Amino acid sequence: MTTQEVSAVFTPLRKNWWLWVKENLFNSWYNSLLTVVLGTGIVYALLAALRSLFGFDYTILRVNLTLLMVGQFPRDMLWRPWLSGYLLVAAVALAAGLLKAQAQSKAEQAGLPFTKTRPGDVLRRGWPVLVLVVILLSLTQTITPTLLTVGLLAMGIAAYFLGRVIPARGRRLAWVGVVLLVLGGYLALAAFGGRGWSQWGGLHLNVFLTIAGIAFAFPLGLLLALGRRSSLPAIRTMSVTYIELVRGVPLITILLFAYLAIGFLLPENLKPSPITRILIAITLFEAAYIAEVVRGGLQALPKGQVEAGQSLGLPAWKTTRLIVLPQALRHTIPPMVGQFIALYKDTTLIQILGVLDLLNVSFIINTQPQFLGQGLFILTMSFAALIFWVGSYTMSREARRLEKKLGVGER
Amino acid sequence: MRFKKLIAVIAVLSMALVACTETSGSTTTQAGGGGGSTLAAIQARGTLNCGVNNAVPGFGFVDADGNYSGFDIDFCKALAAAVFGDATKVTYVPLTAQQRFTALQGREIDVLIRNTTFTATRDGSLASTFATTTFYDGQGMMVRTGEFDTIDDMADTTICVLSGTTTEVNLAIRMTGITHTAQTYENNDQLQAAFIAGTCDGWTSDKSQLAAQRSAYPESSGGPAALEILEETFSKEPLGPAVLDGDSQWAQIVNWVVLATIAAEELGVNQGNVGSFGESTNNAIRRLLGLDITTDAGTAPFDPGLGLPTDFARKVVEAVGNYGEIYDRHVGPNTPLGVPRGLNNLWTNGGLLYSPPYS
Amino acid sequence: MAALTTDGLSARPPFWRSLKFIRWSIQLVAVGLSVAIVFYLWNNLIRNMRASGISTDFSFLTQALGVNIAGSDISPGAPIWRGLLVGIKNTFALVIVGVPLLTVLGVLIGIGKLSTNWLVAKICAVYVELFRNLPPLLLVYFMFNAVILQFPAVENSWDLGFVLINQRFVAFVGFVGQPGIGMYWLVMGVTLLIAIWVWIWRTRRWEQTGEPHRRVAWSMALLGAVALLAFLILGGPIALSIPAIDGRVATGGYQGLAQYFGVLIALSMYTASHVAEITRGSILAVAKGQTEAANALALKPTQRLRHIVLPQAMRIAIPPVISQYLNFTKNTSLALAIGYAEITRITFQTIGNGHPAPQMIALLMASYLVFSLTISVLVNILNRRLQYASR
Questions:
Q1: Looking at beta carbons, which residues of chain A come within 8 Å of C334?
Q2: One-letter-per-residue 3-state SS of A1-61
Q3: What is the pLDDT of residues A281-305, one digit of tens each?
Q4: Has this prediction a pTM greater than 0.95?
């Protein structure tokens, strides 16, 4: 050991910033070189980014913010998306509170330590979302959206703590409440003179297609996964063929098929709307991927579990339903979130079909007369990129946390 | 366990409910069978499915409130006004160049009004029927001022063009023997961004489109004067509405709605004065507007038997105005596009617009 | 399971309770149902297409394409199937260059994330989080609009001597054969065979005697020496072709469209962010004892990485990396967004010019299936070889 390395061992005790810099940035000649070169590059890039950030005229985003968020949803019905947002946030917050409460009771029963979520943790984990919300609100033209957002936050927090304090006996009823809230979120948009998904657009459409795509594809994917592991050769072959065919082609070809050719496959009096056709395509596509995720979960299950079921004399379907699936599906939660994120990003492909999703709106607003030829393409595109990035990044971080947590609990 | 079942039941019920609201709210229901029932299907549905563009300046774009606007869009509105007496009963179906004819053939739209060029092949093999041209355009080439005098000078150039259009095919024919790179883009906004960045020596499109882009060229890059549209028009581009083959009644309706806007301009009927002809003695106007006409047979509005209400032209003019007004609102000299009437003027003013007699 | 139904039962159960019957009937029903659905859809397809007056066969493939394809010699009169072949070739061009590129980039960044230099590790982490959380389509658009289009115009190309860069194309230095080139290739071919033999010989010797093999130095020295000698003797059979701007085009060298590089770089960077995570995970998954053993042998950090950690990490990484290669291949379809003429783009173009969509989409899907299956077969063979070598 050289003297340098000896001193390095003791640095944590001294907490000397200079030593930290020396150890982490200049610990060898090539690292020093790298640090200097990269440091200069970063400072330069940040300065350039800041300069262009302030050089832009944000009017195009300000004027079109509603279009970017909810597409062509009638402007006199904007209370519907807001109400829907309130109900969905309530559902998510309530569910989070309930999960936390359940985890706490479990930990207490097992006598394990339980860490409460502190407000600081929420801030650390959710900062990209908060930054995005602030940016969005800074682009609004009236005070109403800000007030509504504050209300939304307050209600979310309230729902979370409601979920935390509900006694164990009432929790199941509360889960029913969560499902009803989600349903209410949809009805607030579509029912009683509202607009169905055929007329949705903007970010709203991307989010909807992601959630609905996974929700509709899950049952189909589950069947395909079970089919792939079935002992019946014909069913196995059909499942494998479907899964491999779909996974072998890009989503855009399936979307194109749904958009241009599905009309020919259906009887004459059945004409699904473009969004419905896209939803069909996404469902068919996503089912094959979910099947593989579920198969991973099934494979992770020790063989003894199935044999134990058989030795109890349970029929095959009961073994699957009562023993295999409940355990296997737990394993699939983290990869399922990954699939969710992938689909969220893939929903941008409908831009190529001319559907007015967030990405496409960010393009077409450049053809409005007052913004025509202003060269704002990069600005509007970056705005869409920011929104996609924040959503995807936050979800992937939460997924990793979940993975760690489930992994620790399981083994 | 019971609660799990309850949740499952609620989930299934909610899905069913979602499906129900969706079908009732669904707008793209069948667009009529092959045997002449398009009008009946539209009336039963309560809304007109109009295939449009959503990214062409002046012709079809989406404004900040999410409303479609433009020259082509006004003809969708005119059709809805004629059929329902209500210009708002339109469902706009945005289509890309690739999708438009498939959508028409698949009966997903009743009429295609998406700056579509009337050609024999499209009329013949793409199962479509074109109505009266709404806009006489021609394909041109826009370049930076002073770089080229004619298209024949444009050897070794990169020319940008929209994919899946007649424009692309015409370019290939025009540039026979001239080495060039045809850079095709899927959407108008991307093409526009590429041109502003300077990666195209030339941009070929309908001249009205080029004019729109030229007039909006940013001052920081030299303004409109930095660009010029070459003199040569190397193809005829008559843009008009198209319907599916096989329903002549519906084709006639679309045709006469367009013609009515032209006839209204010929007769001096406009959005402002359309209500003031009650006492007019001009029978041509009285016929067009569906006012009572006294003949030997009695007093009744004129009905040519198109299957439309007798006062359809009045509703059209009330909703969108006559042809000249539609033109001036979206593409005329006082708009960002600033395209002079030229061929799109009345035949009496040296243009090509000519409405057969409405009698 | 069959034993359960027969053993010790006096009366045979009715035939519909027999396992064999149940298994057969379930399969028959499932197959019958699928066939019926497919038949029904197929029937609808043919009837609806006929009703709309669309041709239901593939004869349209011999009709004229009608347009030019940038970066190819296809003329408007060429048949559609030739256009499709150009599309397949262009997709292939993306894959063949993209896969090595993204692998190198991904592995470097994955290792960088574990660097002892805090700044390097952070930058690599930011890279991964930035790129893998953006939609690839947006990245393609962004790369083209915010990077490629910001390059100088043709007239002001960046001239780096051997490379020319502008917003329309990138031109690299190329080689042009002079008289005597045939002889030169022949000599070099023979030398290459000898060099391979030398490599094997050195390896054998090393295995037998334990003296350092230096096989790279030996074979490279042989190749280099012969290449130089033959070059001089044959009087310079190869000349460099340095790209130069001539008006609006470049002469000499190899040229690639800017769109090609836009898609290539955007998708490589996107996929590399996934490969980086796989690399990092695989390195961490190599047992800690292996690293400690290497330290105990007093190997230098580079030696440790090269000889101990990476070979083991590679075996862990190969299956997930294959699936990233497949994703990359499928993502090349996004090139159509900025107008690079790969197979999806040609298909869109052809459909847009009025040719039947169902057949074109079927051809498109079939092409991707061939691509995907070929890659998975190839890499599976490679994988098997590597795995066997390790055990």
A1: 252, 349
A2: CCHHHHHHHHHHHHCCHHHHHHHHHCCCHHHHHHHHHHHHHHHHHHHHHHHHHHHCCCHHH
A3: 999 999 999 998 888 888 878 888 8
A4: no
